[in-house]
Write a structure and sequence with these properties.
- It comes from Paenibacillus borealis.
- InterPro entries: Haemerythrin_Fe_BS (IPR016131), Hemerythrin (IPR050669), Hemerythrin-like (IPR012312), Hemerythrin-like_sf (IPR035938), Hemerythrin_metal-bd (IPR012827).
- Pfam families: Hemerythrin (PF01814).
- Keywords: Iron, Metal-binding.
- This protein is an all-alpha fold and 136 residues long.
- It has one domain: Four Helix Bundle (Hemerythrin (Met), subunit A).
- Helix 1 runs antiparallel to helix 2.
- It is elongated, with a radius of gyration of 16 Å.
Length: 136
Amino acid sequence: MEWKDSYDIGVEKIDCQHRQLLVKLNEFFDACTNQKGKEKIEETLKFLKDYTLEHFGNEEQLMSEIDFPELAEHQKTHAEFVKTVLELEESIKTKGVSVLSTIKLNRTLTDWLINHIHKCDRLIGDCIAAKGNKAV
């Protein structure tokens, strides 16, 4: 997948983190395409755990600072994503890596990029613009 300017929300720190996620997503896709998804899945899940702690914290702090009206709902979607990642990690620990687990991670990441970042996170940028704020 390629980064589209429409994914940018207008906050460099957040946009940079989103681009970093896309890089990891593409690395995982490439590994799957080359029949190496099983080898890459654990590394990708570790990245996601670290990424979500930092990124979601940054994003939620920003939303709080700008009085984002949908903060609670956004936090809920973040928590659901973390839960999905942890469940997938636990499944891999107990059952091992499977084709199904690589497909599930592919779908989860693609859905997150397309639906959450492109649609939900975009609203953060819109909120900042509507308030005439300059986000740092």
